Give the backbone structure.
Amino acid sequence: MNKTIRTALLSVFYKDGLEPLVRLLQQQGVTLYSTGGTQTFIESLGIPVIPVEHLTGYPSILGGRVKTLHPSVFGGILGKREDATHVQEMEQYKIPTLDLVIVDLYPFEETVASTTDEKSIIEKIDIGGPSMIRAAAKNFRDVTVVAAKTEYAYLKTILTEQNGAITIEQRKELATKSFQVVARYDVAIASYFDPTASLQFVNATANPRSLRYGENPHQSATYYGALSNLFTQLNGKELSYNNLVDVDAAVQLISELSATTFAIIKHTNVCGIAQRPNLKESWEAALAGDPESAFGGVLVCNQQIDSVTAEAISSIFFEVLIAPSYSAEALSILQAKKNRILLQQLQPVSSSIQFKSVLNGVLTQQNDAGNYAEWKETGGRTCTDTEKENLIFANIVCKHLKSNAIALVQNKQLIGKGCGQTSRIDSLRQALEKAKQFNADLQGAVLASDAFFPFDDCVRMAHAAGITSFIQPGGSIRDQDSIDYCKQNNLALVITGLRHFKH
């Protein structure tokens, strides 16, 4: 649904970049309304403009604190053009429709940075500006809003190419950006009033949950989010900080696997995982990979927990169990221990962005999506169908281990892993020792590495232990060393072109 711009309200602090847009609006026959300095600026260009005072019947009062806060302005912005009652009332009170609102905000952050004078700072808390922006953004079906000079060029392009008409999608896009501008502005003001609240942006979350403690008992902690949208807690004590971190790791992993899978997470790393025809067998194989580390872990699966599996699980101590559903019999068995946390996962965790606090700030990045970008067979032979299935599985598992990471897999069972080491060869040594500790059969096993092999020492050591196929992203200046060794020894080596490093 396109809307042609016929009227516009302009009230901006920064005038740079405004002239070309104003001249275009004039050329397209748009009636302009404005206030104060913006009005003076437009008049200096020789362009007709109607003072807002002509709408309101009031001059700017209270030292400029009140200029636009009037029904004649906000009615023109908020009135719904398709609502007969709105239209009738606007006609009754002689309120013109305002199709375009171009408003920026007083420079609050700049003022805080340039002075400590509280009176000056307070006066730079904009009231009318955010109100007009929010009103226009709310009514995006009828009104176009621009809340920052960075959007002038975009608006000018649209108006030029579409002859003054703007699509509903474009209006919604601009409305979204405008709400973001106002949100940032409010955070800046809140941070000024409370400088100790360095993460004000999270305080916008409704009903933050105070946790028993943080990573350690002497650390306080709070969870900001809507956990109830993701899980129903069916049993157990309140989730702790560390529980939540491990639960996140668990559901991120299980979301990538569709076949019947059981996994055990310990300190955000996979310590056991397996795929089998049924859930009980998957659990048994996952546990067998490292029964020692499984103690006190977080368990996750992607099928309903039945009574047989519940009985098997109950043989060990665990903190949390996550499943899409539970049979009534299984739930009765598992609820026998009151502190055992049982979560029913209602939907996948789907956020595409990760956050991390560093250096009094926040890093964001896209989630590490996908398994491999390419499947490049570079070894001495092509991997078999069975090897390929195990390599794909191993690569997913390795992706969910802390770097440097190595995952050893046999028959879709994790039989050894190395993670969090300062060298890749140390991670491999750790993985091989784990496999030997629990008598895993390494003959014909596969190996996944989250990042490239810097030397051929990993393929040499793994081959000596019985491993016959490898998967890694490649990208080392010495990739050829590992490739040559695999060719010389008839080993399969797949290069994926996609690194899964978890720093």
User: Anything to note?
Assistant: The longest strand covers residues 269-275. The mean pLDDT is 91.
